[in-house]
Each structure stands twice: as C-alpha cells, then as structure tokens.
C-alpha cells in the first residue's frame, strides 16, 4: 500500500503530525469488519421484535385498532431528529472514556430496558380492553399515551446508540475500507432479521393454535428478555476495543473544520439550493412511504387472512430479509453496472408494485406458502430499488457538504418510515371501518381482505408515482449547478 502523499509545501524531512498519526492507526481487516457488523445484526433483531412480533400481537390477538397499535410503535421512528444531537454530543463529550463506545453501550442497554417496559404497558392496555372493550375511555387513553411515551424513549435510546455507531464506522474507515464496511453492515442487518426469526420461533413455537392471553403474555415476556440480552451482548462484543485501536477521530478533528458544525439553518439552505435536490427529496419521501407501509400490517395479514400462528407470521421477515439480500447482491453486481442507476431503481419500483398486487391476490387463496413466496419476491425488489437509490443518492450529494447531505437523506428516510408505519395502520383501520359500513353484523377475520388490499394497492400506486418523480431527476443538471448554488447559499448565510 502506498503512503499518503505529502503536500509540496512541507519542507523535506518534515511530516505533518496528522499524517504520521494516521499512518500509525492500523487498517480494518475483514474479521474486524464482520465483528463491527454484528451491531447491525442486533438492530435487525430489535426491529423484528417491535414491528414483527409486538405489532402482530397487539392487532391480532389483543384486538387493538391497527391505527392505534401502529401509531404508538411509529413514535420511536419520529424521534429520528435526535440523531443529530446525539451525533454532535458524541463528537464533543466523551462518555465512559470514549467518544462513541460509551454512547453505544448505554444506548443499547436503554433500548433493551425500554422495549421490555413497553411490553408491560401493552399487557395493561390489553387488560383494560378486556374489561370494557375498545373505546376511547380515559383508562385506554392513559395506557395508549404511556405506550407512546415508552416508544418515544425507545426511539431516543435507538438514536443514542445507532448514531454514535455510524460515526464510529466513519472514524475507523478510510477510502479503501468504507464501501466494504457499508456492504457488510447492510448484509448483517438482514442476517439479524433472520436470526431474530429463529429466536422468536424457538421461544414462541410452544404456543398452541389458540393460546390464552396468559400464555401469550408469558411467552412474549420471555422473548423480550432473551432477545434483547443477546442484542446487548452483540453490541458490546462488536465494538469493545475498536475505537481505541482503529479510530482516526482525533487527527481528523484537528486536521479540518468538521462538517457537523454546520447549523440546521445552513443545512436547510444547502438542501434547498438545487432544484434537483428537491426533486430527489420528494422521490425519496414517496419511495420510503410506499416501501415500508406494510410494516404495520404484514404479520396481522398472515394471522387474520391466512390463519398463521405468531411464530409462523414472524417467519415472513426471514423471507423478506433473504429476498432483500439477494436483491442487494443482484443490483450491486449485475443490474447497476449493466442498466445504470436510474433504470435499476425504476426496475425495482416496477417489480415492487407488481409484488404488492401479488400480495393482495394471494389473499384470495389463503395459502401460507404463496404468501411467503410473494413476500420473498417483494424483498428481492426492495433490495434492488434500495441499492439503486443509495448509489443514486451519492451522485446527488455535493462533496463540499457530504455530511450534511447524507445526514439529511437518512433523516428523511427515518421520518418517512415512521409516517409509513402510521399510514399503513391508518389505512387498515379505515378499510375495516369502511367494510363495517356496508355489511351487517361482525365481519369474520378471513373476510377482511379488502381492508388489507387498500394498504398494498396504495403502496403499489406510490411506487408508480416514485417512478414518475425519478424520471424528472437530472443528475447532470445537479452536478453542473449544485456547487454554485450551495456556495451562494453559504455566502448568504454569512451575510
């Protein structure tokens, strides 16, 4: 490996302190990258517990309205703006002797504790519903509000651990290792979802076809103790000793004025300086809404329409995760090099729209294997469009303010995902209410397909709208005009 080039202004024999320190920091090896990726594996497990298991139990077994259940869970995703604050805090205030690791460890432990406490609030809400039925009584409102508060704390804990972890990846990587580190991280996230499915099936498989509330409560409590404990162990094992040995933070902080010093007002000026950035922002918003709307309804769909047990509907996440992995590989190695970025994204969106229609049609058969196959195909399409969108995003990121752009794209996706969870639950509730208006008497669960179809077909329409927005994005125009527009925005901010 060649040594860093020394600037010509440096006298012979004089090496800058930053370069000599950087040369002393070892480069990440493959095994270390895999170890770092285990943190993302833990996040995959936790996402399965909340969106895959708890959401299904609330809607299907406890009869909590889908809008209420999805809305309470989605609160944690709306806490994403706190990521900016935790990122800057980890830059300036070390915790437990580390800039990143202390926040990561305390944050992941806080996630585990708040997840378990959230489940206990769910049981109190279930007891209240069992006594009075679902209605907006003061007792039910109190427990729903407390559940939303617990998920808000869960979201803050997630922000406090995931943002310093992402910053740690930046601190320990360089141009040679960054792309491999990101690829491993994405892959391990999907592996975590599959591992979460295995853990959940092992813990919940003993439940009978029609379990009592006491049996469900006992098994879910056990799951929310075992799985978070594993996640905490993975997070600590993944990061212990990494920051001290591999981090370049100190020399990078001294070497340049860091981009995270940009204020929110200046960031907004930068992001609105280019017409193409605005178009891509709208595309990313619609795409994220359309891609994640089924998060709140997929497991209840398997339970109510297909008669699947909790452990069986959890396996849907494994099919989605495996499909996504294959989609990421196919897009990165085959589709993007041959079709280009925009065509790859359009292909992924079109395939996703078709898969969402297929998800609806499988409900007519009520055959679980067909549902699992459709979910796997949807994951494949999701992997393709996600990979294409990421590489396209890099083309629409100005090098002068890369940190601001990447942070803004990530924040936009996180907020859109929260909105998608809420919208999916809302559409399902709306569909069920609409069916109740045109039928007489209670509607059997297996006949509620139109309500779920409303969610899936809305997603499919969103994918078509995303394609239309993407067609208006012009990468060449952005690259020609962005630098001048950003410079003007920054100069006006200083006036």
Overview of this protein structure:
This protein is mostly helical and 495 residues long. It contains 19 helices and no strands. The chain has helices at residues 17-24, 30-61, 66-74, 82-92, 101-132, 138-172, 178-204, 213-239, 242-246, 249-255, 264-271, 275-292, 298-304, 310-339, 341-362, 368-395, 402-438, 449-471, 475-494. The longest helix is centred in the last third of the chain and has 37 residues, at 402-438. Mean pLDDT is 80; it is low at 1-22 and 254-264.
Share in helix: over 70%
The secondary-structure element order is HHHHHHHHHHHHHHHHHHH
Radius of gyration: 24 Å
List the total number of helices.
Answer: 19
Average pLDDT confidence is: 80
Low-confidence stretches: 1-22, 254-264
**Which overall shape is indicated by the principal axes computed on the Cα atoms?**
globular
| Main beta-sheet strand count, sense and barrel state | none
- What is the distance, rounded to the nearest whole angstrom, between the alpha carbons of the first and last residues? 45 Å
Q: In terms of structural class, how would the helical and strand content be classed?
A: mainly alpha
Write the layout of secondary structure elements.
Elements: H1 17-24, H2 30-61, H3 66-74, H4 82-92, H5 101-132, H6 138-172, H7 178-204, H8 213-239, H9 242-246, H10 249-255, H11 264-271, H12 275-292, H13 298-304, H14 310-339, H15 341-362, H16 368-395, H17 402-438, H18 449-471, H19 475-494
